[in-house]
């Protein structure tokens, strides 16, 4: 196609300077040449895609100001360097051997690369969707292999003069821009959050931040509202994802909670109230993010299967099968197994006084004796054992006695606040974020009031 466009430009140029008869004759000759080039067999198989060599961010910024147009650069590279460039996308079930075979590179070349150093071992752990770019010389020898993990990083293995492969990691920094979203709850947190432009991950992050103060399965009411400031990430003008929440407020049943992100001197990231108190309690309010309470803690409940008065020593959360179940706090798995009544279950010991229990799981993701962190996935919602449908039965024991999981967490202490010696640093880092949240909220609040007045 490149040769064909060049011939067309040549014909146009000749039409301006040659007599008509000469131009027609030259045009006919050029057309015949283009036809021969068009029907000649290509060097690369149709399934392979020839691409220009991918550059790192630093190389791109340096080369953009000096290089010729892209089509000419690609042609120069293939002619001057004599390299064939093949790009392969990892498919489900692919092995590294499959990718090398499709690229036309021998297995001996692959083994030489894999034995070049410990960095090459990561090539054995490819994920579908990742891309490999091969640069191959005329003798079929692999000169360079690039692994594109994502838009921000590229791993490169290149053959040097001693016939050994050298490893290099090229990274790019995404451009970050501040974004603001605000919504009022009319249907549900997920529905209204999505309408406001929040991704599912950001909604879950917000629920996690306020998980010790708000029960998102029980406490949410119509008219609740939230405001959130977060980062959006772009590469070459294209949005590639969202960064972390920087500051957020949530008004639940008339009470407003605010949180701000803080990175301490050790590099640890947590969320705190504006005055430095931790948003994280020893236990989260609910072990599932999505679900509704289908049965409350009730010592005199009528059992739905046996129809007798039996204590219901926990809270049931109805949720779709496969919904992640989190550990309510840091601890150690003391039991994990299966019984006819409980189905798949996990029991976790938290310190000396507290135990949490998770019953009727579809699958267990932890084993007895394993240490777990707060909000670590320990299993998924199921309907195993004596269960009428998919749900999680969740129990909370204090000193061996069952307590209401929906209320006990509010009475437990929070994690440590920001140390007094670090308070000045905390305020310097977080006050601008809170001020930014307030600046965004004021125009949005004024606009909402104007809309209400116009309706009235």
TrEMBL record:
InterPro entries: Cell_wall_metabolism_enzyme (IPR050570), Csd3_N2 (IPR045834), Dup_hybrid_motif (IPR011055), LysM_Opacity-associatedA (IPR007340), M23ase_b-sheet_dom (IPR016047)
Residue ranges annotated for the M23ase beta-sheet core domain, each copy included: 311-405
Cofactor or coenzyme needed: Zn(2+)
UniProt keyword annotations, A-Z: Hydrolase, Metal-binding, Metalloprotease, Protease, Zinc
Csd3-like second N-terminal domain mapped to chain residues: 182-299
One of the GO biological process terms: proteolysis
An example molecular function term from Gene Ontology annotations: metalloendopeptidase activity
Chief site of localization: other
Domain Opacity-associated protein A LysM-like: start-end pairs: 88-167
Pfam short name (any one): Peptidase_M23
Subcellular location: Cell envelope
One CC-aspect GO term: cell envelope
UniProt protein name: Peptidase M23
């Amino acid at each position: 196609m490149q040769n064909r466009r060049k011939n067309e430009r040549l014909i146009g140029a000749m039409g301006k300077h040659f007599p008509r008869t000469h131009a027609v004759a030259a045009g006919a000759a050029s057309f015949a040449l283009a036809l021969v080039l068009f029907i000649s067999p290509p060097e690369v198989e149709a399934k392979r895609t020839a691409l220009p060599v991918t550059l790192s961010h630093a190389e791109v910024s340096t080369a953009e100001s000096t290089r010729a147009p892209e089509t000419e650069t690609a042609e120069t590279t293939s002619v001057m360097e004599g390299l064939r460039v093949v790009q392969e996308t990892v498919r489900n079930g692919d092995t590294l051997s499959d990718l090398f075979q499709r690229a036309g590179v021998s297995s001996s070349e692959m083994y030489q690369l894999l034995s070049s150093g410990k960095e090459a071992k990561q090539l054995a752990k490819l994920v579908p969707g990742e891309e490999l770019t091969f640069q191959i010389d005329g003798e079929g020898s692999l000169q360079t292999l690039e692994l594109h993990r994502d838009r921000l990083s590229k791993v490169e293995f290149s053959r040097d003069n001693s016939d050994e492969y050298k490893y290099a990691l090229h990274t790019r920094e995404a451009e970050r821009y501040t974004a603001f979203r605000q919504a009022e709850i009319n249907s549900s947190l997920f529905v209204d959050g999505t309408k406001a432009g929040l991704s599912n991950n950001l909604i879950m992050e917000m629920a996690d931040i306020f998980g010790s103060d708000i029960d998102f399965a029980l406490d949410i009411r119509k008219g609740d509202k939230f405001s959130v400031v977060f980062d959006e990430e772009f590469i070459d003008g294209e949005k590639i994802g969202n960064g972390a929440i920087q500051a957020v407020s949530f008004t639940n049943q008339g009470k407003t909670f605010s949180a701000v992100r803080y990175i301490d001197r050790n590099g640890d990231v947590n969320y705190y109230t504006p005055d430095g108190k931790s948003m994280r309690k020893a236990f989260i309010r609910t072990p599932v993010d999505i679900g509704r309470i289908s049965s409350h803690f009730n010592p005199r409940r009528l059992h739905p299967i046996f129809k007798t008065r039996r204590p219901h020593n926990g809270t049931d959360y109805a949720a779709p099968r496969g919904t992640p179940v989190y550990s309510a706090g840091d601890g150690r798995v003391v039991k994990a197994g299966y019984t006819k009544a409980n189905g798949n279950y996990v029991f976790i010991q938290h310190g000396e006084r507290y135990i949490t229990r998770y019953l009727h799981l579809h699958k267990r993701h932890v084993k007895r004796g394993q240490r777990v962190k707060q909000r670590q996935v320990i299993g998924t919602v199921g309907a195993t054992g004596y269960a009428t449908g998919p749900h999680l039965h969740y129990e909370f024991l204090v000193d061996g006695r069952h307590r209401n999981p929906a209320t006990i967490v509010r009475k437990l202490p929070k994690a440590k606040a920001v140390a007094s010696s670090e308070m000045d640093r905390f305020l310097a880092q977080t006050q601008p974020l809170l001020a930014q949240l307030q600046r965004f909220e004021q125009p949005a609040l004024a606009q909402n009031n104007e809309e209400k007045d116009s309706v009235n």
